Amino acid sequence: MKKKRTVSEPSTSRKRPRDEDSEPGSEPKPVPENTIDHSGNIKDRTQVDKELESLRRDRVLRIFKLNTGQDDHAVMFMDDYLNQTEHVVKRMEVKTQDDLMVFEWFKTHVIHSKLDTSIGHQELSSLLSLWGKVKEEHISLLINAGIIIRQLIDQNMYWFAIPNIGSVLKGLSHGRNEVMSFLNRRKYKEMMLAPLEKKCLRFSPLVMRFHLRDLIGSGSLPRDIGIS
Questions:
Q1: Is residue 163 a contact partner of residue 84, using CB atoms and an 8 Å limit?
Q2: Helix 121-128 crosses helix 136-144 at what angle (to 10 degrees)?
Q3: Model confidence at 38: pLDDT above 60
Q4: pTM to 2 decimals?
Q5: Residue 146 to residues 102, 103, 112, 161: CA-CA distances in angstroms?
Q6: Quick one: which H or E segment has residue 83?
Q7: Is 19 helix (H, G, I), strand (E, B) or coil?
Q8: For residue 224, what are the CA distances in angstroms to 28, 60, 190?
Q9: pLDDT tens for residues 178-220?
């Protein structure tokens, strides 16, 4: 008889076997096939980190800090990011051609030279000035387009951002809460994996499997579930 798998919240009173070297896969991240086991968990996190760093340095992908959690990041292929940015710029209502040029300056002198998740106001202005005279209005255009966002702690620092990602981040947060709510309503805060995966989320555009992997990765659910 095939053993059914359950999903539960981590508990300090009940010990579960776990592989300390395993780390679940994350949907947005490209991962080498030989680092993933049959259950979908990552066997060698160090190797994956090396692959991601190599792809980042080669400008194949870009990493973004998300505001949904302290350690939340998104990984996006550079080509997809550039296409998304160009799509947003085309829909921007700007008064002059000079205003539009700031986006080209940003693409040429900032995106490809600054690979970190954040950038300071002075460095941003300096890089943009390699093309022409930069005004505060130009910085405001980048913020309004959702290409950069100010950090709350330090107003002189900006996060690089993915335009139009707001609805996805909202769904991510709501989906996390909804999944945990399913478990909290159970007597032992457990639920069979198969029926849980089939449940439809009301407040998230992301599929249940994505949220389960997300919660496993954050430590909110045990790693030995084995989502494949």
A1: yes
A2: 100
A3: no
A4: 0.72
A5: 14, 12, 18, 6
A6: helix 78-90
A7: coil
A8: 21, 32, 14
A9: 998 888 888 777 778 788 888 888 889 888 989 988 888 888 8
